[in-house]
């Protein structure tokens, strides 16, 4: 069974500091995709970053990077230089076939000024 | 503007009264899907559709129906809603670009309350 675990229900970070949001996944599939989405208080879901299981380099998108450790089945999101606008709920997701998608329970990030 | 549109955005209904949440996308995506979001559980997939007339169950399909008669539309039907279906519902379509093969484009969400 596919399972995504986000063990940090809530986190605080000081503005301008870096923060790591943890995500581990459980799958027996060899090929899969990993995603992070951001959900601000307004409710919409915003795509942040994608990592394919066969990608050798860690994905980066601006201030976001995905620390992919395949052997550990972890896909942590790193946000550098946090901004007040980064305060939101963050979801890790995995898909083994790009049809079924599995999401974690989310991490609520609060950025302190 | 590329978008996924859901209606209604907010709905309060009563147990047993059939309702439909509509979803429409203007990006010509073949794939569409429905999710429900509940506190502490994240998003869970209800149904997905790979193309017109092709649908399949996600993780939590009980109590829901879908249809895909046109490429752009993917309505979610609750034949006899119950209070445990009170939730925030998201529709999403998926791109197939090689760079991000599975990026989901989400609608704004529909908050449903069943009394």
Strand portion of chain A: over 45%
Average of pLDDT of chain A: 95
Largest sheet of chain A: 6 strands, mixed
Structural class of chain B: mainly beta
Walk me through what this model shows.
- The complex is a heterodimer of chains A (113) and B (115).
- By secondary structure, chain A is mainly β.
- In chain A, 0% of the residues lie in helices and 51% in strands.
- Chain A starts with a strand and ends with a strand.
- With 115 residues, chain B is mainly β.
- Helix content of chain B is 0%, strand content 50%.
- Chain B has strands at residues 4-7, 10-13, 19-25, 31-38, 42-51, 54-57, 65-66, 76-78, 87-94, 104-106, 110-114.
- In chain B, strands 2, 4, 5, 6, 9, 10 and 11 form a seven-stranded mixed β-sheet that branches. Chain B has a four-stranded antiparallel β-sheet with strand order 1-3-8-7, with no helix packed on it.
- In chain B, strand 4 and strand 5 form a beta hairpin.
- The termini of chain B are far apart.
- The model of chain B has no long low-confidence stretch (mean pLDDT 94).
- The A-B interface holds A 4, 6, 9, 33, 35, 37, 43-45, 47, 50, 52, 91, 93, 95, 98-106 and B 31, 33, 35, 40-45, 48, 50, 56, 58-59, 88, 90, 92, 94, 100-106, 108-109.
